[in-house]
Amino acid sequence: MALRPDLAIIAGAVPAGARVLDVGCGDGELMAALKDQGVDARGLEIDPANVTAAIARGQSVVQGDANRDLADYPGDAFDYAILSQTLQTTERPDRVVDELLRIAPRAFVSFPNFAHWRIRLALLWGGRMPVTRLLPVAWYETPNIHHVTVSDFRDLLRAKGVGVEAAWYLSGDKPTSDAAATWRAEHAIFLISRR
Amino acid sequence: MASLLHQIQHHSVTIAASLPLDSGQSLPAVTIAYQSYGALNAAKSNAVLICHALTGDQYVASDHPATGKPGWWARMVGPGKPIDTDRFHVICANVLGSCMGSSGPATPDAATGTPLGMAFPVITIADMVRAQAMLLDHLGIARLHAVVGGSMGGMQALAWATSYPKRLASAVVIASAARHSAQNIAFHEVGRQAIMADPDWQDGQYYGSARAPTKGLAVARMAAHITYLSEEGLTEKFGRRLQARDIKSFGFDADFQVESYLRHQGLAFTDRFDANAYLYITRAMDYFDLADPHDGRLSGAFTAAKDVRFTLVSFDTDWLYPTAESRRVVQALQSVGASASFVELSAPFGHDSFLLDVPALDRIVAGALGGGF
């Protein structure tokens, strides 16, 4: 089964032999791909059905909450932390970024860009919170409690003094340029590091 | 009934080597009764040790010789089951101190031939595991594919990982804990006092007499049985329904169904368990605290066990070994960088969930052993 494009990008950027923590690993899809390429991947996942599915396929996954349970991992326990499509659901995304870069020197963080042109149009013309492919749930029941844009995230990293080693922007399944990302990217993936 | 219990023949091995115990005492020789299922491969690399709970036994997937009931984990162990005996050589040994053929308080004194009773030394979970390691040495099995256990069996699996980290690849710990809490100890003490208050206990030397402390043992079992169930489960099963009557008796018969059920559970237990064994094994559990030798830091227990893959499961209705105890183990494992999996499953049966129909548990156990199910 083909990986989701954002996960494929992350999988392609993790070297064999690395130790990785996938935060919000779901049923272990990315971990399975990483394991196939010789990565020691472990996961943290809040939903017990997903945890069960991941353990059933032989993955090493702990049921837990990214808001609270990252504190249980010692510093530098991993080479990479991965937070895919989860940042916008956390209570304090800024603190989660701190935790990611405490447990690993580098982290992949991916999120849906709330400043994509379709969302801007939906707000501007429709006057309603947008429901899109990547943000498919109405405002009152969405798990996405901290909507974030590419520019917002860049600002946060700058304020924290966090380095950006690489960034990928996806429009649909296709890459889009750095310069146009704030408008055109539906989805952003950052590889960040301690400075 | 204890006399009948001790007449059952079990498959066992007597190892003529001294077994040193945590108490400082030692057993000059040790008998271990065990059952095995599935073929051991030529490399002897497919052995899975299953550790049983307090009142469990080695008959994990075969009919119980005293009660005739199916093995206590027959739903989990067998051909094509989550612990697949077509793939694995499964071993289950009666724990040290128990009453199904392994050395325990009913074992005769080598010199006099009379049962040891309370002269049997107090044992610990680590002692049980040491005896199991002696059995594996005897069987020529250097390393286990996995050690799997629920409740006290989970404690043994944890003790395996800390005592013999090089001898197992994987530990599966279900509805268990790395220590006995004050509440756990308290419930056990109620059970022990019930046994020892029974005049038929006779300071533990009842084996030769026509009397055995069945009343005390039954009460101990009744108290313990409550702790294995959830309030929700009890309410659903019995509510306040009356037993075989329409009106209250205004007496002390078993008016309520739940009373009748508990009395039956208590009495039936005395057909298959020895009161002294109950004393010794509950004591072993009470002494269990993996952090104790490490100044209270549980992570200290696991520093040598970094290469063992751990899988822990708790149940949301288990108040005897609650999720927080499993989480405490997981945190300690994470702090030393060990590979840990953990999930809290939802099941209505309380602590006993590990023995009952919880399909998610089957999938997890199969996955932890490296197979799909």
Describe this structure in words.
The complex is a heterodimer of chains A (195) and B (373). With 195 residues, chain A is of the alpha/beta class. Chain A contains seven helices and eight strands, in the order H-E-H-E-H-E-E-H-E-H-H-E-E-H-E. In chain A, strand 4 (80-84), helix 4 (93-103) and strand 5 form a beta-alpha-beta unit. The mean pLDDT of chain A is 94. Chain A has helices at 5-13, 29-36, 48-56, 93-103, 117-126, 150-160, 181-184; strands spanning 19-23, 40-45, 60-63, 80-84, 106-112, 163-171, 174-175, 187-193. By secondary structure, chain B is α/β, with parallel strands linked by helices. Chain B has eleven helices and twelve strands. In chain B, helix 4 packs antiparallel against helix 8 (275-286). The N and C termini of chain B lie far apart (41 Å). In chain B, 50% of the residues are buried. Chains A and B meet through helix 3 and strand 3 of A and helix 10, strand 12 and helix 11 of B.
Question: In a few lines, what is going on in this structure?
Answer:
The complex is a heterodimer of chains A (195) and B (373). Chain A has seven helices and eight strands. Chain A is an alpha/beta fold and 195 residues long.
Note the main attributes of this structure.
heterodimer; A: 195 residues; alpha/beta; eight-stranded mixed beta sheet; 7 helices; 32% helix; B: 373 residues; two-stranded antiparallel ribbon; 11 helices; 12 strands; 14% strand
What's the end-to-end separation of chain B, in Å?
A: 41 Å
Structural class from helices and strands of chain A?
A: alpha/beta
Largest interface: A-B, 20 and 24 residues
Low-confidence stretches of chain B: none
Number of helices of chain A: 7
Identify low-pLDDT runs of chain A. none
Strand order of the largest sheet of chain A: 3-2-1-4-5-8-6-7
Q: How many DSSP-defined strands of chain B?
A: 12
- Total DSSP helices of chain B: 11
